[in-house]
UniProtKB/TrEMBL annotation:
<feature type="transmembrane region" description="Helical">
    <location>
        <begin position="236"/>
        <end position="269"/>
    </location>
</feature>
<feature type="transmembrane region" description="Helical">
    <location>
        <begin position="119"/>
        <end position="139"/>
    </location>
</feature>
<protein>
    <submittedName>
        <fullName>Iron ABC transporter permease</fullName>
    </submittedName>
</protein>
<dbReference type="InterPro" id="IPR000522">
    <property type="entry name" value="ABC_transptr_permease_BtuC"/>
</dbReference>
<dbReference type="Pfam" id="PF01032">
    <property type="entry name" value="FecCD"/>
</dbReference>
<dbReference type="InterPro" id="IPR037294">
    <property type="entry name" value="ABC_BtuC-like"/>
</dbReference>
<feature type="transmembrane region" description="Helical">
    <location>
        <begin position="281"/>
        <end position="304"/>
    </location>
</feature>
<dbReference type="GO" id="GO:0005886">
    <property type="term" value="C:plasma membrane"/>
</dbReference>
<keyword id="KW-0812">Transmembrane</keyword>
<comment type="similarity">
    <text>Belongs to the binding-protein-dependent transport system permease family. FecCD subfamily.</text>
</comment>
<feature type="transmembrane region" description="Helical">
    <location>
        <begin position="64"/>
        <end position="82"/>
    </location>
</feature>
<feature type="transmembrane region" description="Helical">
    <location>
        <begin position="12"/>
        <end position="32"/>
    </location>
</feature>
<feature type="transmembrane region" description="Helical">
    <location>
        <begin position="193"/>
        <end position="215"/>
    </location>
</feature>
<feature type="transmembrane region" description="Helical">
    <location>
        <begin position="311"/>
        <end position="328"/>
    </location>
</feature>
<keyword id="KW-1133">Transmembrane helix</keyword>
<feature type="transmembrane region" description="Helical">
    <location>
        <begin position="151"/>
        <end position="173"/>
    </location>
</feature>
<dbReference type="GO" id="GO:0022857">
    <property type="term" value="F:transmembrane transporter activity"/>
</dbReference>
Amino acid sequence: MLLKTQFQKTVGLYLCLVLLLFLICASIVYGYTDTSWKVALEAFTDFNGSKEHLILQSVRLPRSLIAACIGASLAISGVLMQTLTKNPLASPEIFGINAGAGLAVVISVTIFSAGSTQAYTWVSFLGAAIAAIGVYIVGSFGREGLTPLKLTLAGSVVAVLFSSITQGFLVISETTLDQVLFWLAGSVQGRKLDTLTAVLPYLAVGWVISLLLASKLNLLSMGDDVAKGLGLKVGFIKLTAASCVILLAGGAVAIAGPVGFIGIVIPHITRAIIGIDHRWIIPYSAMLGGILLLAADILARYVIMPQEVPVGVMTAIIGTPFFIHIARKGFNAN
């Protein structure tokens, strides 16, 4: 643990905020269309209607804000899931929640011809909830009940099942394939500001409730019996935290598709920096999640320029080594 005192943690959080704001600005400046920091500043202080100013205002600003919000939401949902399940591998993508939300969107496009962000949002929430319930039911089978290993296996099964069904829908519908293929890889490219504003209220509710639950999550992490002995309403807290996961993960998928690995990597990095106090873990994870997704999105613009790599591919490249390390460490500990 690097930061031990409250002063150190506070300073560290402010530094994370500064880095997050810097990357938001860098995301606005850098890309295929050549611009500079001066041009970016003028686009918001002395708009002249030029191509560069239009791109900066209508394309890059929404993209950078969306990346920050999605990264924060996925990171917080990973923290909540790992605390609820006491499983170091828990995250929206590993437990099939992203896949469930993605399948729901594909079904809504294929069968009901849904095309609005609002429609995507509601079906994403529904798909995320169905996936979460499915993982819980499958993981509960057997004599020992829920265990970290069984939850991971159940999540993997549900994720593969939903992903296979999604591929089936894409095979039989070329229209759906053209509409959602890039989205399914996880991308913030081409997203508009109204896409964010449609989902932001749900994400904000998830952020606020997660912060309010922080001290109770500290008790819950000690074990259900200890938490009950200290007067905590364990069932209610778990249900509330699970609802936040559905809001955050479902909302993130509605905007950017199933972006992976942020929910599993960031909580572990955060704990290595500031310890196990959720009052610090949640805000730090939000900042670091936004930082990681913004950095990945900026890199994705340059890998095969003038084309772009979906940001979900970049987070997978970054996150896979962490996942392997966490998986070996976690299961060796068990």
